[in-house]
Every structure is written in structure tokens, then in C-alpha cells.
Amino acid sequence: MRIGELSKRTGLSPSRIRFYESAGLLKVVHRQANGYRSYPPDAVSILVMIEKGQKAGFSLKELRALLPADLKAWDRTSLLDALREKLGAIEALEAQLGESKREVEAVLAMVEAKPEDMDCAEHAAIVLSRLGLGPDDGADS
Q1: Most buried of the four, 5, 20, 74, 85, by CB within 10 Å?
Q2: SS3 at position 101
Q3: Cα gap 82→86, rounded to integer Å
């Protein structure tokens, strides 16, 4: 099939398909005598996997190492290892984001707790002090 049809089947622009080809991700391209690119039916599956892989957080370099030139030659063990490693990285990021969220929520609660009769500058000093960022944070001791 030609690039226009491949574009329609995958929803990717021809320029994106050419980019994946030049990046070494789409290896099943054949050139016809007239210079046109010709793609086998497997190209659809490969492009879908590339897009899904990127959405899952895989870099182009990681995908290049994982994707075989021929889908029948896929190294299942390497794929499983890469997927497990990516899952671990996502879980670590989730934990880090959870901690960041808790910290932001704590600061938000402190800022929201400003009494109506308190000056903003005075309240800011209290919040900063609680966070260990105020002038009396013990840095001189």
C-alpha cells in the first residue's frame, strides 16, 4: 500500500509516517522503481504499536530497540522485560506525584486557613515559618 492509504488506516499524517521511517522505527518500507514508498499490511500494526508505545511513555529509542523488522520475529522475553521496567518506572512516578500532591495540598490548606482579621504578610510569614522558609527557620543556630 502507498503512504496515503497507510495514513488513512492509521490516522497518522504522511509526514509522521515518514518521520517514523527516518527514525528507524518503521523498517518494512520498500521503494518502487518510481521512488514511491510501498508498505506491507504489517505497517499498520507497527505504527499503531509505536503510537501506543509513545502514549505509554516509551521513548523512540526504546521503541526502536523493541520493534523487530518483522513482527513474526518478536523477542517476547525482551518485550516482557521492557514492559515490566516501564511499569516500574510509572509506579515510581506515581509515588513521586502522590508525595508532591500531598505537599501541595498541605501548603494550600495552610494558605487557605488565613484568618479574616490577619494581614496577608503576617500570614505569609507564619506559613513560610511552618515550611522552614521563614527568617526564624533556625539557619543562624
Answers
A1: 20
A2: helix
A3: 6
